[in-house]
Each structure stands twice: as C-alpha cells, then as structure tokens.
C-alpha cells in the first residue's frame, strides 16, 4: 500500500540519521525517504553497501559461482565432456569480483541521489541523544554535526578472532582477507564449520587448495537438522577430487605458531589427543560479533546487552524510543535479508506508520555445493519444544530434474503441524536450494496447508516439484517416491 500523500507531507522536515549503509541501513534510508523523511545515511565506505556488498555476500557468491563452474567442469568428465585442467587467472577473478561489487555499490550511490538521501562518508558517533558527530573514515578529525529526530543504528558485525594466538597476520586470515583473493594457498586450514567457513572452504577447494576443516562441535553447521547436513558432508568427504582433505569434528585449535611460509597448528580432539600440522594459511571463521563499540551509545539511553546486541522491541525501537537498531547489531540471526526486513520496520515506525517485526520465518541459506537452506521451524526445534508435528521427506533420488542434472544428492523436507496440517518449516539440501526455499517462506507466512501445496501445480521437470511431492508424501500420495513407513514420522 502506497503511503498516503498527506502522511508523507506530515513527515517533511523530520530528520532521520542512519549509521551504517549495509543491507539494514540503505533500505531503511530509501523507505524513509519514500515516506517523506529527510534522510542522512552515514558510512565510512566510499559508497553504500556495507560488509554484504564489499566483503561478504556479494564477493563470496561471485567466487562461489566460479567454484560451481570449476566443479561442474570436473564432473563433466563422467558425462563424456573432457574440459582439461583449467588455467586459473587469479588476477582476472579478483578483477571480476571487484567489478561486480563496484556495479552494485555504484548503483546504490545513484539511487541515493535519485531519492534525495544524503550520503555522508565517515564514522558516526552519538554525541547525545539527538546529535551524531561524523568524523572522517579513519575516525580522525571532526567533520560534521548532524542533528536528528530519529536515528537508526545499522552498524553490522565483525569477525570474531581466536584470542591469544601468536601467528603471522599474513598467514592467518579472516573472511575479509580470504575474499581479497591475494593467493591460493597449497594447504588451507579452516577453523569453524559454519556458514563462512564452509563457503570459503568451497571456494578455495575449487581453486585448488587442499582444505582441512576443524569444527569444535560434533557437526558441521551446528543447529541445522542433521539430515540436511548429511548430503553436504558426504560430498565434502567424497574421494575422487571432490572432497576436502579432512573434516575434523569435535576438534579445537589450541596453538598456532608462525612456521616458514605458514602456520604450525596444534589441534586437540574430544579425547584430548593433540596433533601438530602445518598449513600455508589458516582461515578463522568462528562467528561474528555486533559492532556497537565506538558509537557513543553511552551518551544515549540505548541499552546493549551482555552479548553485545542492542536491545530492541517489536518496532526495532531501543530503550531510547526515537533511536532504532536493525540487523546484526540487533540480534541473531545475522543475515542480510533479516537486516533489510528490520530496516523497513524501523523506517516505517520512524515515519509514524504501523510496523512490527513479526516474521514467521527467516530463511537461511548456506551457499555450499550442495546448498543447504531452511525456513521456519526446524525438526530439531519442533522436537525440543514438544510441538506435535509430522516430518516428511522427499529424497532427490526420486526427482527427474535432479537426475538430469546428475545431482540426486538432495533432500526436501516439510515440518507440518499435525492438528492443522499447516506448513511450519521447510528444509532443502541440494543444488539451487537457496532459490527453492522462498516458496516455503511464503507458505509459512501465509499459513499454507500441506494440501494447498500438494494441489498447487509445479512446473515439470523442475526441482521445485520436490516441494510439492513432499506434501504428496504427507498424504501418502507421492507418484515418484514410496517411503518404507508409508509416510513421515
Ligand atoms: P557460524 O556461527 O555460522 O559458525 C562458526 C562455527 O565455528 C560454529 O560451527 C562453531 O561451532 C565453530 N567454532 C567456534 N569456535 C571454534 C573453535 N575455537 N574451533 C573450531 N570451531 C569453532 O559463524 P560464521 O561462519 O563465522 O558466520 C558468521 C555469521 O555470518 C553467521 O551468523 C551467518 O549468519 C552470517 N553469514 C551468513 C551467510 C549466508 O547467509 N550464506 C554467509 C556467511 C555468513
């Protein structure tokens, strides 16, 4: 619904200052401007985009696309296509990634001027609860005082490090270092089997590194349903060039020392057994923490909790009601699309419109090969909370489209509430799962029942049919798959 003209007029002259121009801040700026607010968007980077565009989602997905191409060209041997050993021009790859980023950040800068959003390059700091002082991007030299009626904190997060390790900075990377693509090490240790660790491991493995992953918990992607992780783990462990050198679970790094052109790492497994191994590079991907320090929040009434997140209510308002917080600074999950959603809510609330963060499902996608995606309630969470659900699965071994792609290693599962037959969760592992999951988000948000999904015609032959066929399994009517138990459990 378009905002009534009168409402927009009543916002004229009301000033909204936004700290951070990532996927939380820039949509908030654009929506705020469309609702008649006078918006200033503040960020140290040359153009809007934040970590997501400059050194996160976009460069990583650009390189994951390359990884996909390399892996597919390797698999093509089995189909009778001999591509030969690829010659990788790392400078050109880096250049392309930079061009993709520049195109998108440049586009956002142009949209700022078209929408009359003032972009101020620098670091913002609250001087009091109605003033932000912006200094130059390095934090030196006073530049400008900006008074505001409303403010939104959208300053994102930064990589956590492993504390207390004395190792050569050039040899121990965080995700930003890894995405710079300075070189392709012969051997790479990835510490952390979460989103970032596995995506970057996939990129470097495809480019030719021998990759080892250590994860301190008992599973890759802890928290994700184990049956969704299994196809990924099977592929990553597979022999024949597809797999990583090793995936070490329940293992920690206990020491790192500089060693010739790399790092000597001490690894300790769950039994306490230690081993020393040499790697050319170590990538640390053990989580991220919110960027709330240095913002002058102590000069406002904004409350930061023990985990470092800013406390917000359903309108994304902080304890200082005219100051909002969105995205990674406002709590888990730290995902760009959740930040954008919250940015919209905050901008609308600041403009005096009714708004609430009440999403029934925040989708999550890990862009590995196969991709792992889920939305809404997971099976693990349903069991933990004692919710009466029926879980049904459709293995991609029964999908015609998956067979044509040579990728039967997928799984689609639905979590259906028994009493109402409503879809509460969808999980997909398989090629393209990240694109397929959106249907589940819509189903959950709109209270769709399993029968609706079953009776919705899906195009053939596509992987989207697996979502419909999982609903068929719920009613014991799948054409292509007969579960041994006759249904789910
Ligand atoms: P993560 O929380 O996903 O994974 C970190 C992993 O490191 C966990 O599995 C944890 O058990 C493990 N770990 C922690 N300390 C360890 C140690 N000392 N030794 C071994 N393992 C250890 O965090 P991440 O991968 O760094 O990603 C950070 C955030 O960025 C995530 O919350 C995610 O939301 C976001 N992200 C999303 C995407 C995406 O949407 N595709 C991609 C990248 C990052």
Structure description:
- The protein is an alpha/beta fold.
- The protein folds into three domains: 7-159 and 289-350, FAD/NAD(P)-binding domain; 169-286, FAD/NAD(P)-binding domain; 364-474, FAD/NAD-linked reductase, C-terminal dimerisation domain (Enolase-like, domain 1, 2-Layer Sandwich), CATH 3.30.390.
- The chain is 31% helix and 24% strand.
- The chain has 14 helices and 23 strands.
- Strands 3-2-1-7-18 form a five-stranded parallel β-sheet, with helices on one face.
- Helix 8 (226-237) links the parallel strand 11 and strand 12.
- Helix 2 runs parallel beside helix 9, helix 4 (57-75) packs across helix 5 (90-114) and helix 4 (57-75) crosses helix 7.
- The longest helix has 25 residues, at 90-114.
- The radius of gyration is 24 Å and the shape is globular.
- 46% of the residues are buried.
- The mean pLDDT is 94.
List the helices and strands and how they pair.
Elements: H1 5-11, E1 15-19, H2 25-34, E2 38-43, H3 50-55, H4 57-75, H5 90-114, E3 118-121, E4 123-128, E5 131-135, E6 142-147, E7 150-153, E8 157-159, E9 172-173, H6 175-180, E10 187-191, H7 195-207, E11 210-214, H8 226-237, E12 246-248, E13 251-259, E14 262-269, E15 274-279, E16 281-284, E17 288-290, E18 323-325, H9 336-350, E19 364-366, E20 371-376, H10 379-384, E21 389-395, H11 400-405, E22 411-417, E23 423-430, H12 433-445, H13 450-454, H14 465-474
Parallel strand pairs: 1-2, 1-7, 2-3, 7-18, 9-16, 10-11, 10-16, 11-12
Antiparallel strand pairs: 4-5, 5-6, 8-17, 13-14, 14-15, 19-20, 20-23, 21-22, 22-23
Helix pairs in contact: 2-9, 4-5, 4-7
The chain binds nicotinamide-adenine-dinucleotide.
